[in-house]
Amino acid sequence: MIRARVIGAGACLPSNIVTNDELAKTVDTSDEWIQGRTGIKQRHIALPGEKTSDLALGAARAALTDAGIDAGELDMIICATTTPDESFPAVATIVQSRLGMHQGAAFDVQAVCSGFVYGLSVADSLIRTGAARTILLIGAETMSRLLDWNDRTTCVLFGDGAGAVVLQAHTGVGTNADQGILNTRLFSDGRLHDMLYTDGGVSSTQSIGKLKMQGKEVFKHAVTNLSAAIQASADASNIPLSEIDWFVPHQANQRILDGTAKKLGIDPARVVSTVALHGNTSAASVPLALVTAVQDGRIKRGDLVLLEAMGGGFTWGAALLRW
């Protein structure tokens, strides 16, 4: 059986760090208020002129270096983002050009905070079918561009950044002992649009709009939907949750992470959390957390890792892989 195995991972964050205390100088909030409700202590915010493609390129280069390959060996680039530099072309094609990659294909996927998990499913399918052998998958966002900085209920939550992985075809025997992606599970429910969206867009207001969110409702659905996605992915490979070494969730809110772990009886020590340092970086949050746990030695080769995320739409999903 052909599996899509991660052979490299990398990340890129803006150098500009904004702490809660700094944010409180311009927004009616406080470090105590933000940490108590979200667990966030700081976030990275892109500087003027710093684009999503810049962060995506930085993460891409880091992932390629970690994989020990160059762009000439890639068949495809997929970028998960909801904050592209321009309405078109895709961020992935900009990265393709700046990497000096002249072969293959490049395109974006848009599922907001679930984008990286959706992109992982697409890449996995392409590799399994033989359509591609080596794929660079990026999650990159400049969510700060979508924020209403007068709305303290939303502007304190988000940050900017990018994470990337290189996936390559690997022959396994078809068991859960194989390295690579074991399964992905994707879901959505468009009826829940009004709980998390932007109030503008190309075909409606000819502007990007600003992020709007019903926080309490999002929290309720997040814990329920993420728990179900985690269980669905584990069940698809007949693996008990107790046998999964690490859970790498979308970093939206520490309370969501804690609530999901409690609902499923997961030891919080096995849940990777970077929300305190990064805030919610949308499609970049899962790969940023993944890279953090790999680089600090928590995630090791052979470990079972479950990724999960939920975003506006609503979209949500999970992916189980052996590192």
Write the layout of secondary structure elements.
Layout (H helix, E strand, L loop, with lengths): L1 E11 L4 E3 H4 L7 H8 L3 E3 L7 H16 L8 E5 L10 H9 L5 E5 L5 H14 L5 E9 L9 H4 L4 E12 L8 E9 L7 E3 L12 E3 L1 H22 L9 E4 L4 H11 L10 H4 L6 H11 L8 E8 L3 E8 L1
Parallel strand pairs: 4-5, 4-6, 11-12
Antiparallel strand pairs: 1-7, 2-3, 6-7, 8-13, 9-10, 12-13
Helix pairs in contact: 3-4, 7-8
Detailed description of the structure:
By secondary structure, the protein is an alpha/beta fold. It has two domains: 2-171, Peroxisomal Thiolase, Chain A, domain 1, CATH 3.40.47; 180-322, Thiolase/Chalcone synthase (Peroxisomal Thiolase, Chain A, domain 1). Helices cover 32% and strands 26% of the residues. The protein has helices at 20-23, 31-38, 52-67, 91-99, 115-128, 152-155, 215-236, 254-264, 275-278, 285-295, and strands at 2-12, 17-19, 42-44, 76-80, 105-109, 134-142, 160-171, 180-188, 196-198, 211-213, 246-249, 304-311, 315-322. A five-stranded mixed β-sheet has the order 1-7-6-4-5, sandwiched between helices. Strands 8-13-12-11 form a four-stranded mixed β-sheet, sandwiched between helices. A two-stranded antiparallel ribbon has the order 2-3. Helix 3 (52-67) packs across helix 4 and helix 7 packs across helix 8 (254-264). The two termini are 17 Å apart. The model has no long low-confidence stretch (mean pLDDT 97).
Assign the CATH superfamily of the largest domain.
Thiolase/Chalcone synthase
Please report the total strand number as a whole number: 13
Number of helices: 10
- The CATH topology of the largest domain turns out to be Peroxisomal Thiolase, Chain A, domain 1
Question: Within the largest sheet, what's the order of strands?
Answer: 1-7-6-4-5
